[in-house]
Amino acid sequence: MTDFIRFFIPFYFTIFFTVSFVGISYRIAKRIGKSPNVLPKDDSAYGLVGLYFKLILLALFIYTILLLLFPEDIFPAFKINIPEPEALKYIGLVIMISALIWVITAQLQMKNSWRIGIDSTMKTDLITHGLFRFSRNPIFFGMTVSLFGFFLVFPTVITFSFLLTGNILMQIQIRLEEEFLLKEHGEIYVIYKKRVKRMLGY
Hints:
The structure is a single chain. This protein is mostly helical. It has one domain (2-195): Up-down Bundle (Four Helix Bundle (Hemerythrin (Met), subunit A)), CATH 1.20.120. The chain is 69% helix and 0% strand. The protein has 7 helices and no strands. The longest helix has 31 residues, at 2-32. The radius of gyration is 18 Å and the shape is globular.
């Protein structure tokens, strides 16, 4: 199982970000004539959140590559001493794969409205169908679940830090986007917000 995890983890996150970020970004860019990556690069508070997002993704990528290249050194480093039944690792793998499918599905359902960040220069539709009937932020929910699955498969202080830090940054981003969507869509968004929870459920 350890050898399988060693190869699965970097392969999984490579597929995750290649498809859900690079692939979807390219697809949307061709449709709307501009990059959907609109995260600011200034020194504002919002720009800082975007910078931290990028740093977390870079750290996650480096960590998974180190797991692949130096498993005997990286696997036991900062390991959390909790019971680790083999079934829990398989559950974690299933959660990660399910989260990937969930995220890509939500991105496809957003169609041309999908953005990385807040696009104040182009009017986008408020998406309320598909997975957005169950979560106002299914993409962020799926990303959080993916990191949780990673922690179950490989419970270390480092993977827990990715889960915690990533969730904090996503919660900040969600609130920034909610503020924008309220201004953009007004009462329609208020009604939607009352009906559907921020992450999952009614």
